[in-house]
Inverse folding.
């Protein structure tokens, strides 16, 4: 995902070089403005990615879904009601 954001930033840089270069500005000023556009696009992309991932994480937690996509149970795993009795009966039966 970071590679995609970087490539979109480079696309914005190239487009801004062409647009700003058509205005007969000095080369250094053109590159400087285009770099500012590149940094701005990358920062906005990273912030959008962070906000989106946080929103997905909180909505999954609210629905009770684990990060791996499996539903989490609010209750612990079920245990037999007579767990201790069954264990003691099994021990008596083996002796």
């Amino acid at each position: 995902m970071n590679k995609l954001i970087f490539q979109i930033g480079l696309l914005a840089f190239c487009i801004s070089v062409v647009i700003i270069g058509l205005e007969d500005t000095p080369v250094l000023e053109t590159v400087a403005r285009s770099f500012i556009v590149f940094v701005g696009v990358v920062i906005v992309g990273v912030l959008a990615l962070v906000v989106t991932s946080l929103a997905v994480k909180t909505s999954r937690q609210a629905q009770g879904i684990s990060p791996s996509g499996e539903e989490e149970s609010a209750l612990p795993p079920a245990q037999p009601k007579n767990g201790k009795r069954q264990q003691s009966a099994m021990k008596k039966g083996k002796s």
Residues 27-63 form the longest helix (37 residues). The CA atoms of residues 15 and 61 lie 41 Å apart.
